[in-house]
Every structure is written in structure tokens, then in C-alpha cells.
Specification:
The protein has 323 residues and is an alpha+beta fold. It contains 6 helices and 12 strands. The chain folds into 2 domains: 167 residues, no CATH class; 109 residues.
Length: 323
């Protein structure tokens, strides 16, 4: 604050605000479940080791939080869904002017062994006047938790749109791909046989064409030979023999490349099959309120350790989360 005295400005130092803690938790209605989060000492060791020369003292300080746990069920006839999971949220208790920060889960890995029935000895409690521990407020917070789950918890189902196959919740991509490929082969098996039959007919026609050309060339050669023996000369017969030889060579080349053609067609067919089997789409499913089963909802005291740190000629407080 600044005051004026004799035309001069005099600065009056502001007092450092002090926070008053209580050695006892506030009275909470018996209808509300109360628990204490266990302290994880391993979280404090790095801090204590790095500042052991400047730590003057410390104390355990509890802040209020909400422990909310629910089992949610996704079910649907379209994909024959049957899936359950549990969700637990540990958040700071909101004041009267705050919204619940359900997305800021302070302990995503919370388990039942993290809970205690009693606080640590010689601990303190931080409680503001803006905290409302009434049953009515807890009912409102509980409804807020349910609405949060309804709005934010969805189940994404990955599926193949061609074969209407869905990927199971715990199924690997490799396993799902194999199932889709098996289904593709099963559904396209008639087309595979049709392709093989078409290629076989083409090969048979080439063989028949070759046999025909060989026979006709044989006849032309015999005729040409007879003509020569009788001292004659027929240019057309020589042209026919030459054309037959050329046609035979062309057919042999075509037959020689037939295996390559077969392999190419089968590879193309297999590629199309794989492409269809690998098609993926995703659909999101939401639940309704009847599919939410509340397991636990109550007040949980969250432990912190407040250290007094000596820095040259002054001291400061530092709060370390210990859960």
C-alpha cells in the first residue's frame, strides 16, 4: 500500500498472507463415503534428496477430492456388442464457483489398495469456506459425473464394410486381417474358379490352334514337295508354308508367355482380394444412463507434503503431491 506524508510517498510493506490449517477434518454427513488416499513415499524421495540441506521441516497436508468409480456397459445388436469396463476418477473437490474437472484425473491408475480409512498421524487439513460437503451437493456432483460419462465415453468399433466383420475389442490387427482375408477368399472363391477356368480355356484354344496350324503346314509341305518332284513351281504354296511357319512361331511365343499371363492375372486377383479385405471403417457407440452402474462416489482426502525451505535469510513453503 502507498501512503502520502508531507508530499512524499511512503511504501508500507504488505504482510505475507498465512494459510491456516486444521488438525481435524471438517464434519461431513454420515451418508457420504469418506476415504484417505495412501501416500506414495517414492514420490517424495527425489525432492527430499535434492534439497536435504535446505529443508527445515515438513508436514502432511490433506486436500479434499472426489473419488468416483463406475462400471459402464456397451451393448448393441448391430455388432453383437458385449463390452464392459470400469472407470475411476480422482479429482480435486470443486469450490462453489468451479466446475468438476473430470478430465484432469489425478490418479488414472487408482486401485482399491490406494484407499485408507484413516489419515496419517499429525497431519493437517486444508479446507476453504467455498467447499460444500452437503449431501445435496454430492448428489449434484454424482449426476455431473454420470453426465460426463454419457458425453465423453464412447466405444469405437473398427469393421470391414464389405464383409460386415467387426474387430473384437481385444483382437489384434493381424488376427482381424486374417479373418477378413479368409472371408474374402470364401466369398470370392467362385470368381477365382471362373478366372482359372477362363485361363484354362484360353490355354486349350492356343493348343488347338497350334495343332491345327501344324497339320495344315504339314499338308502344305507335302503338296509343295510333290510339286517340286514333278518339276513344277507354285509360289502360293511356298507363301502358305512360310505363313504357317510364322503363325506357328507366334503361337509358340504366346504359349511361352502364357504362364506369365496366368501369374499376372492371379496376382492381380489376389491384390484386389487383399485390398477389399483391408478396407476399414470406424463407428462410435455411446451408451445410455441405464448402462452406467455407479460403484463408488465419495470424498477422498488427497495427501500432499508441505516443506519449509530455508533460502539464505528467508523461508518459503513448497507443496509436493505425494499420491
Amino acid at each position: 500500500m502507498t501512503e502520502t506524508s508531507g508530499g512524499k510517498k511512503v511504501h508500507r510493506a504488505r504482510k505475507t498472507p498465512t494459510i491456516v490449517y486444521s488438525s481435524l477434518p471438517p464434519t461431513v454427513p454420515s451418508s457420504i463415503e469418506i476415504s484417505y488416499h495412501a501416500i506414495d513415499r517414492s514420490l517424495l524421495q527425489p525432492f527430499e534428496q535434492s534439497r536435504k540441506d535446505v529443508i527445515v521441516t515438513s508436514q502432511i497436508l490433506y486436500k479434499p477430492g472426489i473419488l468416483a468409480s463406475a462400471r459402464i456397459n456397451f451393448s448393441g445388436t448391430r455388432w453383437n456388442l458385449r463390452y464392459e469396463k470400469e472407470i475411476t476418477k480422482v479429482i480435486l473437490f470443486p469450490s462453489k464457483h468451479q466446475l468438476c474437472a473430470w478430465e484432469k484425473n489425478l490418479n488414472p491408475d487408482w486401485e482399491y489398495y490406494d484407499s485408507r480409512q484413516d489419515p496419517e498421524p499429525m497431519s493437517m487439513f486444508f479446507v476453504e469456506g467455498t467447499y460444500d460437503f452437503s449431501p445435496e451437493n454430492f448428489e449434484s456432483l454424482q449426476e455431473d459425473f454420470i453426465q460426463y460419462l454419457l458425453s465423453n465415453e464412447t466405444l469405437k468399433v473398427e469393421y470391414n464394410p464389405f464383409f460386415k466383420l467387426d474387430r473384437k475389442i481385444d483382437e489384434s490387427e493381424e488376427s482381424f486381417s486374417n479373418r477378413c482375408m479368409e472371408k474374402a477368399r470364401e466369398d470370392f472363391n467362385p470368381e477365382m474358379h471362373q478366372l482359372e477356368e477362363t485361363l484354362q480355356r484360353l490355354q486349350d484354344r492356343l493348343k488347338q490352334k497350334l495343332e491345327k496350324e501344324v497339320r495344315e503346314m504339314g499338308d502344305d509341305l507335302a503338296t509343295l514337295e510333290n510339286t517340286r518332284r514333278s518339276g513344277g513351281h507354285d509360289v502360293q504354296e511356298e507363301i502358305d508354308v512360310h505363313d504357317s511357319k510364322t503363325t506357328i512361331e507366334d503361337i509358340k511365343k504366346e504359349m511361352g508367355g502364357f504362364n506369365e499371363l496366368r501369374e499376372s492375372k492371379m496376382k492381380e486377383f489376389q491384390g484386389n482380394l487383399t485390398k477389399v479385405a483391408q478396407e476399414r471403417e470406424t463407428e462410435s457407440f455411446r451408451m445410455n444412463q441405464s448402462q452406467i452402474h455407479l460403484l463408488r462416489f465419495g470424498l477422498i482426502w488427497l495427501p500432499y507434503v508441505e516443506f519449509v525451505i530455508q533460502e539464505e535469510d528467508s523461508r518459503r513453503m513448497e507443496l509436493v503431491q505425494s499420491f
